[in-house]
# Entry
Amino acid sequence: EADIYQTPRYLVIGTGKKITLECSQTMGHDKMYWYQQDPGMELHLIHYSYGVNSTEKGDLSSESTVSRIRTEHFPLTLESARPSHTSQYLCASSEYRIRGPQETQYFGPGTRLLVL
Amino acid sequence: AQTVTQSQPEMSVQEAETVTLSCTYDTSESDYYLFWYKQPPSRQMILVIRQEAYKQQNATENRFSVNFQKAAKSFSLKISDSQLGDAAMYFCAYRSWDDKIIFGKGTRLHILP
# Structure
């Protein structure tokens, strides 16, 4: 099994609260990702990082922000949660090849967020 | 732009039978990776099998195998001797040289006892 962790696993919170979803991996992977996934639906990439101090926005626009101060850690923050943010958030990591097809992604268990 | 299509939103199979999940993709690249991921209800998404496009031989992992047809841009997953633990959402994914990864919409697989 992959060594990638997410906390909390479930979070119920009121509108307007600031939240941070944690993601960490112990595989030394340079590349990390955040996906948003509504129940029974496909994954949408919202953020990714090539390494420390690198952050990029994904294909789906998101009001969340991310940071990458350490290789193993890639937290996602919502400054003011709203009901439209209710979803599952999946973190993933992979090795990064400068050239050639990229390596397998490994996924965390996900955080299910409910904003009331 | 690359696309991945899973045309079967849901499928059911009798326990111990064989089932095939279909996936087609569109790309102009010649080298890439293809993956099948499994996401059980409320559990972690895990890699089932992967295929490198330059390899002609179909990948296999125990009861899971793929039928990779590069010219047809088809990448189906065959599950033999289906077990109750195989019930999950299955995602087909494409990964390119420039590190884009595209997921299909998924196929929910039900195993009937």
In short: The mean pLDDT of chain A is 90. The two ends of chain A are 34 Å apart (CA to CA). The domain at 13-115 of chain A is CATH 2.60.40.10 (Immunoglobulin-like).
